[in-house]
UniProtKB/TrEMBL annotation:
Lineage: Bacteria, Bacillati, Actinomycetota, Actinomycetes, Streptosporangiales
Keyword Ubl conjugation: no
Residue ranges of the TM segments: 12-30, 57-75, 82-104, 134-157, 164-182, 188-205
Keyword vocabulary terms for this entry: Membrane, Transmembrane, Transmembrane helix
Protein name: DUF4386 family protein
Species, as recorded: Planomonospora parontospora subsp. parontospora
RNA-binding as UniProt keyword: no
Length: 233
């Protein structure tokens, strides 16, 4: 399957675009807070096993989404390259920071087991509202991930790799989730991007090795630029 590093990167990028959003969609389905009390100090205590499983799934979904975004930048090398170089790192940083926020889940679960829901919520709010937490992990990083992936998909569309409906679906799914309460509606909104990113992943997997390599800067360009650099020196 893997003739060289190019084949490996193509397959890995395609698989990540399928798996990462799927893990996020599964996590929101399993999350006790999706169907129960919106206070995680309560809902996590209702089913501690599922609470821990969903935290792990979210953690890895966000880390893999960062890698998937990195793979998506490859198809933007010939067109929308500057756009990708700006949007891509912001999206990657956003998802890495989202992953870091998942460490708050076991803290909230522990507080819910040892305090009343009201007291646990009060303590948790004081912790997560510290300036270091807000500006180090939340703002503006959350928005770079949630709104950044649809924006990055616009770059893939401009590069001719994605259909127009893919950034639209991502905007409706991920962007729309910011305007509804976390719950059953989130299952739908985080479910539909699975099809959009999955379509990009399948397209990558179906690409030939030569098609993938064609996105790399050509050797002739590098050779042609070398004499000019020598003259300038």
């Amino acid at each position: 399957m893997f003739k060289d590093s190019a084949d490996f990167r193509r397959v890995a990028s395609g698989v990540l675009l399928i798996v990462a959003p799927l893990l996020q969609a599964i996590a929101v389905i399993l999350d006790p807070g999706t169907w129960g009390d919106e206070r995680e100090a309560v809902s996590f205590g209702d089913d501690p096993v599922l609470a821990q499983v969903q935290s792990v799934l979210y953690h890895w979904a966000y880390l893999l989404m960062a890698l998937a975004a990195l793979g998506l930048l490859h198809v933007m090398r010939r067109r929308a390259a500057v756009f990708g170089h700006i949007a891509g790192p912001l999206v990657i940083l956003g998802y890495i920071n989202l992953s870091g926020l998942l460490m708050a889940d076991p803290v909230e679960w522990w507080l819910g087991r040892h305090h009343s829901p009201e007291e646990a919520t009060r303590i948790m709010d004081e912790m997560v509202n510290l300036p270091g937490v807000i500006f180090g992990f939340q703002m503006p990083w959350i928005f770079f991930a949630i709104f950044g992936m649809p924006v990055l998909a616009v770059g893939a569309w401009r590069a001719g790799f994605a259909h127009w409906w893919i950034p639209l679906v991502l905007a409706v799914g991920y962007g729309g989730s910011m305007f509804v309460g976390y719950g059953p509606a989130t299952v739908v909104l985080w479910g539909i991007p699975v099809a959009a990113l999955g379509a990009l992943g399948v397209r990558m997997l179906r690409m030939s090795r030569d098609e993938w390599i064609s996105y790399y800067p050509t050797a002739s360009t590098a050779v042609a630029s070398a004499p000019a650099a020598g003259v300038g020196a």
